[in-house]
Amino acid sequence: MKSLFLVLATSLFAFVTPAFAAPKQGDVIIRHVTVVDVEAAKTVAAQAVVLKGADIVAVGADAAIAKDWRAGRTVEGKGRYLIPGLWDMHVHFGGGPELIEENKALLPLYVANGITTIRDASGDLPEQVLAWRGEIAAGKLFGPRLLSSGAKIEGIAPVWKGTIEVGTESDVDAALDRLKNRDKVDFVKITDSTLKPELFLYALRQAKALGIRTSGHIPMALTTEQAVDAGISSIEHLDYAYNAGAKDEAAIAADFAAKRIDRAEANRRLDAGFDRDTAMAAYRRFAAKGVFVTPTLNGSRIIAYLDRDDHSKDRGVAYIGPKLRKTYDWRIERAAKADAAAIAARHKQIEDVATILPMLAEAGVPIIAGTDAGFLNSFNYPGFGLHDEIGLFVEKGLTPAQALASATRAGPAWFGWLDRYGAVRPGMVADLVLLSKNPLDDIAATRAIDTVVMRGRVLDRAALDKMLADARAKVVAWNAEAAKP
Ligand SMILES: [Zn+2]
User: Fold this and answer.
1) What is the Å distance from ligand 1's center to 29 Cα?
2) In 3D, which of 109, 165, 84 has the Cα closest to residue 469?
3) What is the mean pLDDT of residues 397-411?
4) H-type alpha helices, 273-328
5) What is the pLDDT of residues 375-393, one digit of tens each?
6) What's the whole-model pTM score?
7) Which H or E element spans position 67?
8) Could you tell me which of 191, 276, 274 has the C-alpha nearest to residue 235?
9) Which terminus of the chain has fewer CB atoms gathered within 10 Å of its CB, N or C?
């Protein structure tokens, strides 16, 4: 009875639907492609994806979509895998006003590596970066979508340049007012060089009250739990999350606050006090409070092994201008001065810290891929570095699907934008990367980029290669200029 009804209903539907309905018009159609559903960690073969303007307007079985849609440009996706555009959620621009051009030249490197959105976690050129954000959004400057914290909030006379220095609660209020209403920042970055611990917590609470997301480094005089309870939205760098696993974190924080111990001793005790059950309980609280973690693991690994690794043959060096290259020196020199015990401690620390990555995932903490690439951070190459970061995530215990989600979905999830980003579905922004291998089999496939689509604009392999060649040529010219007597 039911099936008869279905047959009748279906034939009735066929009868009233004109067979000669005019095809719908898109701008680009990607055909015969395997779509990677990152959220479900599965692939869907033989799909077609239609783009119109900056949006995805149709996704479905290739034959059906090809019948219903026409497009000005066809991209052949046979044997290829389509993922959402990548997000690098922790980058920097800076080094001083004379480095503006070299920093600007980094923007295409992200796109050439499939990165369609970057989150600037503050440097010493905040006004410049905010200007680029506007120019990119207006289509006047080529680069990935740029989200920025603007100037970071710090204490009085910090080691960092280009910050907003705050010494009182009213300073914090003024800083947040400026960032929210004048600079219209995408989030607030708060760091701990000289910031008073109580003002760090005050800034977190006030930002939350104003509806602004916060990210930062947690002062040693506070526990991770205090920052989590005050409403921090993302913890940058895995070592701060690692500290939450120390059984006696509160006592260590109190001793450091009272100046009974120095930073090195605090770190030694935090490492010695690490306990799996304490850590898992802390990470479940992170998850319950909606706190994300951006490990920047590869950046920490590079710094930890500066004594051992030779970077002179790195492919990325060719993309770094001479003035930016010079900013690498302070970390290199500092590493060279370290004694054997300090080097061994640094190697142990990075390996210990990395063990919490699968624990965070198990506790349900969203892990965000971010590189910390930019000035100062030696041999951490803009664009290329994100593939290193997610490769390291898999090496340290995440699945390829989890690693891929950290670079495609965690960023939009953090901003509350999963309705527009992080999936290959109608209604999403047309930010896509076409890969020649399956990233769910091997995360290294994210490097095998055939085509990048950014806000609907198609950049095929030839266009990406030209962007990279242009970037290298700029560096060659700058190097020649710098070598002149
Ligand atoms: Zn950073």
Assistant:
1) 38
2) 109
3) 98
4) 276-289, 297-304, 322-327
5) 999 999 999 999 999 999 9
6) 0.94
7) helix 62-68
8) 191
9) C
